[in-house]
Specification:
Layout: H1 3-6, E1 14-19, H2 29-33, H3 40-50, H4 52-61, E2 70-78, E3 83-90, E4 106-112, E5 117-122, E6 126-135, H5 141-153, H6 158-164, E7 165-167, H7 169-177, H8 180-187
Antiparallel strand pairs: 1-4, 2-3, 2-6, 4-5, 5-6, 6-7
Length: about 190
């Protein structure tokens, strides 16, 4: 059963895991601009401190274990809309690497309607859209290398993604919301 069926109240097109899009609402930038020594990084740090409770949810998700290493399949767009694909394999089997954030833009992590963990980040120089999936246990190192090369060359399609990887969205949704099926069976 996918997360959308398990958690129908949390989905329209996607289930937001964490976002900083609204972190700066109500933040008084005009007051900060009066202090020339306050740089953008300091503004971000102050805004994040104001919203530390939201970050606690991400901190809890970072230690969620998965069975295999996770691959991030990324599509970057520069200011001229030139696209570049890239990937990174996190060598450990938890979600920690999925939730990295440079702090210099807006970022959102969500589980999409296909039950996949995704993110987007927009900065002043580029935007990046990422898909996080777990490598299949049956892959040889040669298979993994071939998959990485296809991603970087921009020759990837959804059939390849499903051939080489498994979704981790269910793990994230269960960590966030609990196992709805288990709660239903306990209440009966």
């Amino acid at each position: 059963m996918n997360s959308k069926a398990k958690y129908p109240n949390f989905f329209d097109q996607r289930c937001i895991v964490w976002t900083n899009i609204n972190l700066f609402n109500g933040f008084d930038y005009e007051a900060l601009r009066g202090h020339c020594c306050v740089c953008q990084d300091t503004q971000i740090v102050r805004a994040l401190k104001l919203n530390n409770d939201a970050l606690d949810e991400i901190r809890e998700l970072m230690n969620v274990e998965v069975e295999q290493p996770i691959i991030s399949i990324d599509m970057h767009y520069d200011a001229d809309d030139e696209a570049m694909s890239d990937c990174y394999i996190f060598p450990y089997c938890n979600l920690n690497g999925c939730f990295c954030f440079s702090g210099d833009g807006i970022k959102e992590w969500y589980i999409d309607e296909k039950d996949d963990l995704r993110s987007f980040e927009v900065t002043d120089i580029d935007s990046c859209f990422s898909l996080f999936r777990m490598l299949k246990p049956s892959l040889s190192p040669r298979d993994v290398q071939h998959f990485k090369e296809e991603i970087i060359a921009g020759n990837i399609n959804w059939d390849m993604v499903e051939k080489y990887t498994d979704s981790i969205g269910e793990k994230v949704a269960t960590a966030m919301f609990g196992d709805v099926n288990n709660e239903v069976s306990n209440n009966e």
